[in-house]
Amino acid sequence: MRRKIVAGNWKMNKTPAEAKVLAAEIANALGAAPCPVEVVVCPPYIDLPAVTETLAGTQIGVGAQNMHNEPKGAFTGEIAASMLQEIGVKYVILGHSERRTYFADTDATVNAKTKAALAAGFTPIVCVGETLEERESGKTETVVTTQIRGSLADLGADIAKVVVAYEPVWAIGTGKTATPAQAQEVHALIRKTLAEMAGEETAQSIRIQYGGSMKPENAAELMAQPDIDGGLIGGAALKADSFLAIVKAGC
Ligand code: PGA
After folding, report:
1. Is CB count within 10 Å lower at the N or C end of the chain?
2. Distance CA 240, CA 211 (A)
3. Helix (H/G/I), strand (E/B), else coil: 20
């Protein structure tokens, strides 16, 4: 049985003070009751100390939204794994489509970052997904399998520790969600690709999140699909009540 994982991607939202308030609201609303869903929040770098401090002792994990693959050095503006480790970060989103589009992340850089994240003991949340143009021209399968094979190349047994997020670019922040059937089809394709890369047993153990306008109204149906193991939530993760409603939909 794969444990569902719901992660909030706060993107470039919330100052440290605001982040502290949101993290506390989420922790209070989730309470101490054992939750079968693994819950993670991924605030901007500058908010991470406040959020890890606020969530210490709770069942909520904290992730970054990116990191550099090099351990240190002359990379102005970048953040290394050891810096994140020291403040209690356990997860890192890598290869989000916004990073691939605006900040030149490629399958090769995502692969290097994934290796560095695994070496640091983090759970990488590696994002893949096709654009609308790619979907409409029948390229979804090629695009997604190429991203999976490139971003997750040569990880050895550690591939089992990765969480994959399937995020169709046309569904991110647009209010357009993939239908449960559309999402399931790509999730099954991703799992088949993972099986070709790492064997059936390992592929069956890897969690694959859906992301792209997931909200309380559609979360339960999406997460009920056999290969959808949780969600990566943008807009709806910025309010404690909608984020928690999605978490509860996975219970
Ligand atoms: P959205 O973003 O939920 O606002 O569509 C998801 C994401 O980009 O991770």
Report:
1. N
2. 18
3. helix
Confidence band of 34 (pLDDT split at 50, 70, 90): confident
Distance in Å, CA 71 to ligand 1 centroid: 29
CA of 41 to the centre of ligand 1 (A): 13
User: For ligand 1, atom 1, which residue shows the shortest CA distance?
Assistant: 234
Structurally, how many domains does the chain consist of?
Answer: 1
- Spatial distance between the Cα atoms of 47 and 141, rounded to a whole number of angstroms: 37
pLDDT tens profile 103-137: 999 999 999 999 999 999 999 999 999 999 999 99
**Is 23 within 8 Å of 238 (Cβ atoms)?**
no
Match 């992340």 to its residue by tokens.
105
207: domain range? 5-249
Token pair recorded at residue 140 = 């979804």
Ligand 1 pocket, residues with Cβ under 6 angstroms: 9, 167, 172-173, 211-214, 232-236
Of 250, 249, 158, 175, nearest to 212 by C-alpha is 175
For ligand 1, what atom is nearest to the CA of residue 97?
8
Which residues on neighbouring strands pair with residue 231, listed in sequence order?
6, 210
CATH number of the domain enclosing 9: 3.20.20.70
